[in-house]
Amino acid sequence: MMKKKIIVAIADGLGDRPNRELGNLTPLQYATTPHLDFLAAKGSTGLMDPIAPGITVGTDMGHIVLFGHDSTKYPGRGPIEAAGVGLDLIEGDIAFRCNFATYDGSVIIDRRAGRIRKGTEDLAKALNNMQIDDVVFKFKEATEHRAVLVMRGEGLSAQVSDSDPKAPNDGKPYNEVYPLDDTPEAKKTADILNKFLQKAYCQLKYHPVNIDRVAQGNLAANFIITRGAGRMTQIPHLGDELGFSCSVIAGEDTVLGVARLSGYTAIQHKNFTGNVDTDVALKAKLALRELETNDIVFVHMKATDVKGHDNDPKGKAVAIEKFDEMVGYILPHLPQDAIVALCADHSTPCEKGEHSGEPVPVVMSGAGILADSVQTYDEEACGKGRLNRLTGHQFIWSLLDYLEVVPKQGN
Ligand SMILES: [Zn+2]
After folding, report:
1. In the structure, what pLDDT confidence band is assigned to residue 1 with cuts at 50, 70 and 90?
2. 164 CA distance to ligand 1 centroid (A)?
3. Alpha carbon of 222 to ligand 1 centroid (Å)
4. Residue 307: inside a domain, yes or no?
5. Which of 135, 243, 308, 358 could disulfide-link 153, Cβ–Cβ 3.0 to 4.6 Å?
């Protein structure tokens, strides 16, 4: 029997609740989604809990699960963000999420350095590869005022506090980093990181980018604040272990970071904006191209989650229609024996404006997959499907089984 090929389309934060603004429909029920409904009508549907019912997950953890891993393999946000911006991590590295901030020598004036957009690449270069004692610092800019920091050396620990004073604490001093346990590793990490923060301030204070910014009346990006320390631990490379190849197409660094740590090919493009104006035709085209040389391709869209956070149910319905459009570009060009799956990493109900622990609707559809009686893709209809209610791990491994890579139990 021929091995199948699989495309998994992920609408971030898709799941929702009945919303008064939409006549008590969910955004997915309200939106017009002919392609998603077509797949639901022809395939098996169900409801998926990323980890377990009622357990809320972040996009990072949601994708750890969707990319086939056990949730215990979660390495922490720092390493995921570092991998997301393309820093190569090795076992034992300590990674942090950072902001460029504005510091006047005693207090943080702005935690986001006036939401700086330009020049962070040059500023980051001034800090990258700095060495203090036996620790080397890797530093790279991310979107806007965000950046990532990696400490590499012997005897380091992620058990250190945040230097970020957290919103809304502009106008207060930054927090000295202190060890969170009694180990010499945590003490060493905190001591050296505190030295780095001061040294970075000296480097950035008179950097030409900041001299220009101040001359133009902007806030200087002259300080680094850190949070979310995580120790890099290797995530299993499932593709190598089981024998399949995988590619992930996304605009969001977090998703790309989990993909890279998983050993999958991560594909990004400047037209992937992380919002409703993202280039869905290009996403579809790249997904089909990647499917030619890979067994499984994940294609991710962020806008659905963004609109959930914005408490914008009508906007979320528009984002869902863009997701439908993307799937519509893919369907006519699929190879024979292809399977298309629809899912999400978690729910982001508009009325809450945050992630929730509710399940998300899922579909698997294509050659060899039984249809159930469900005709539309939404939270209510998929609750009647033949996949019933399953975990993210069960859903993804059911798909991997169609690649004929999941080892048989027993004899
Ligand atoms: Zn998400």
Report:
1. very low
2. 24
3. 31
4. yes
5. 135
